[in-house]
Amino acid sequence: MACQSPILVALDYPSQAQALALAQQLDPSLCRLKVGKELFTRSGPQVVEALQAQGFEVFLDLKFHDIPNTTAMAVKAAAELGVWMVNVHCSGGLRMMAACREVLDQHNGTKPLLIGVTVLTSMEQSDLAGIGLDVAPQSQVLRLAGLAAEAGLDGLVCSAQEAPALKAAQPALQLVTPGIRPAGSAADDQRRILTPQQALAAGSDYLVIGRPITQAADPAAALREIVSSL
Ligand SMILES: O=c1ccn([C@@H]2O[C@H](COP(=O)(O)O)[C@@H](O)[C@H]2O)c(=O)[nH]1
């Protein structure tokens, strides 16, 4: 049976052994798992296959950002790996996202959800100004969301702070929100944060949570506590 939980645990580890050891403590009915750049660069597709063999659906969070053909071929490779969700940067543009949609539409078998990264949750307005974007994060997120919808993407990575505006503007898009911090947790390098309960109330569909679970003394208990608080 498909997992009903909105929690995606970010497995940001430097080795497959550490990622699998954490996964063994977790219940696939309580969460899905996210494999990102650090773990994938060190361990490759086999870590995804090993997690799938443990019964987990996997979000491959490699945030592809390249010319349309290269990005679409990377998305195709992710689909062939059998991942549940894959993402690309919306700032790669409409043609890039449309090429990814097209390659997945032609894919035989189960298609991963295709998600567009808007503005990283580690960024605030001053960071956008630093890269030449003199806009509030929410304005840029809404702009990129319009492009993602036009390209036929399934959803967005954004902050839960933008969820109410996005659900009003683009109700068909599923919202995947990192920058989730239980009350009292350190923000770390995140800037646009909400608690798990606030994020769901705001309209998030999926909550990406890494360090508050993976660096807890008892990660399985930390996950159970968050799930039961929702
Ligand atoms: O905008 C984004 C996009 C992706 N992430 C990823 O989510 C997790 C968050 O981990 P925490 O330890 O809960 O901060 C991490 O893997 C990021 O690469 C994000 O934070 N923001």
TrEMBL record:
GO BP terms in the entry: 'de novo' pyrimidine nucleobase biosynthetic process; 'de novo' UMP biosynthetic process
Domain Orotidine 5'-phosphate decarboxylase intervals: 6-226
Pathway involvement of the protein, from the record: Pyrimidine metabolism; UMP biosynthesis via de novo pathway; UMP from orotate: step 2/2
Binding residues annotated for substrate, in chain numbering: 12, 34, 61-70, 121, 181, 190, 210-211
GO CC terms, sorted: cytosol
Enzyme kind, highest EC tier: lyase
Reaction(s) this enzyme catalyzes, per UniProt: orotidine 5'-phosphate + H(+) = UMP + CO2
Catalytic site: D61 (for ompdecase activity), K63 (for ompdecase activity), K63 (proton donor), D66 (for ompdecase activity)
GO function term, MF aspect, one: orotidine-5'-phosphate decarboxylase activity
Keywords: Decarboxylase, Lyase, Pyrimidine biosynthesis
Documented EC number(s): 4.1.1.23
SMART domains: OMPdecase (SM00934)
PANTHER family: OROTIDINE 5'-PHOSPHATE DECARBOXYLASE
Function: Catalyzes the decarboxylation of orotidine 5'-monophosphate (OMP) to uridine 5'-monophosphate (UMP).
Entry similarity comment: Belongs to the OMP decarboxylase family. Type 1 subfamily.
Assembly and binders: Homodimer.
Listed name of the protein: Orotidine 5'-phosphate decarboxylase
Native source organism of the sequence: Atopomonas hussainii
